[in-house]
Amino acid sequence: NKHIISIADLSRDELELIVATAKQLKQSPRPDLLTNKVVASCFFEASTRTRLSFETAVQRLGGTVIGFDSGGNTSLAQKGETLADSVKVISSYTDAFFMRHPKEGAARLASEFSSVPVINGGDGANQHPTQTLLDLFSIYETQGTLEGLNVAFVGDLKYGRTVHSLAQALSLFGCKFYFVSPAALAMPDYLCEELNQAGVNFEVVDDLEAVIPKLDVLYMTRVQKERFDPTEYQHMKANYILTAKMLANAKQNLKVLHPLPRVDEITTDVDATPHAYYFEQAENGVYARQALLALVLSEEFA
Ligand code: CP
């Protein structure tokens, strides 16, 4: 089974293949590719984009989705069933198992009990590999390359799993990183260590506006409210807010990305600028997840 648990499970060649396949499927839809395939979509934590774009991806490829959302009406949530037992049973009904869970390591654990490929749709503050696939596709689509870009990550770099996965992926492509966050929400030490060992050029900077003219990609994130107690969150939120005015000296090719949902870290006047790409990015979730499904499940693409 080819499980997709961490972005680090994928090589540079595999990432490039997924991006190329997403491009192909966006241009030429394949409504028959997953005929007779059943895919589980199991969300133990809230989601709008990841769940709905994944389920759209399956259905537009001709497959069928079963599963549940984070409402909790399952034997695991209501009757004390273990994740391991739930996964054993659900994987026996299906051809692939897509899941999101609030605990770090849950998808890895599930992969040990699943008889079919497990795809991680986000595990706590750890990893969000399929978000990274759509981020890479959006970067490639707008920049024409993944190579040698100047990329700033802004906001909650400590708990932002999308940041962790994307930084690991882009570290394979010689990009320069700028990390912009309150000190309490800085990139985790283990990731900085990993980037150092990989020889990645990165800087920690305070002044977002000063760094904008250097950038090709500005990756904004929200403070992960669900990982804080409410008082702590009040002190953390909205430290860095991007406005249209701050983009006055941006390079023409700069694209602002955000995994969404946004809270107040990008003002709505940015939406009308040519730099905003976050809604197109969210749409690309369908094509990136279709590409992954095609490569994991379709003999034609395998
Ligand atoms: N980007 C993202 O993971 O959004 P959802 O939480 O809505 O799935």
Automatic annotation (TrEMBL):
Pathway where this protein functions: Pyrimidine metabolism; UMP biosynthesis via de novo pathway; (S)-dihydroorotate from bicarbonate: step 2/3
Annotated carbamoyl phosphate binding sites: 49-50, 100, 128, 131, 260-261
Subunit structure: Heterododecamer (2C3:3R2) of six catalytic PyrB chains organized as two trimers (C3), and six regulatory PyrI chains organized as three dimers (R2).
Coiled coil: none
Highest taxon of the lineage: Bacteria
Keyword terms, alphabetized: Pyrimidine biosynthesis, Transferase
Top-level class of the enzyme under EC nomenclature: transferase
Xref: PROSITE patterns: CARBAMOYLTRANSFERASE
Record EC number: 2.1.3.2
Residues annotated as binding L-aspartate: 79, 161, 222
Family that this chain belongs to: Belongs to the aspartate/ornithine carbamoyltransferase superfamily. ATCase family.
Sequence ranges assigned to domain Aspartate/ornithine carbamoyltransferase Asp/Orn-binding in this UniProt record: 147-295
Origin organism lineage: Bacteria, Pseudomonadati, Pseudomonadota, Gammaproteobacteria, Alteromonadales
Role, per record: Catalyzes the condensation of carbamoyl phosphate and aspartate to form carbamoyl aspartate and inorganic phosphate, the committed step in the de novo pyrimidine nucleotide biosynthesis pathway.
Gene Ontology, cellular component aspect: cytosol
GO terms (BP aspect): 'de novo' pyrimidine nucleobase biosynthetic process; 'de novo' UMP biosynthetic process; amino acid metabolic process
Residues in Aspartate/ornithine carbamoyltransferase carbamoyl-P binding domain copies: 2-141
Name of encoding gene: pyrB
GO-annotated molecular function: amino acid binding; aspartate carbamoyltransferase activity
Catalytic activity: carbamoyl phosphate + L-aspartate = N-carbamoyl-L-aspartate + phosphate + H(+)
Protein name: Aspartate carbamoyltransferase
HAMAP family, per the entry: Asp_carb_tr (MF_00001)
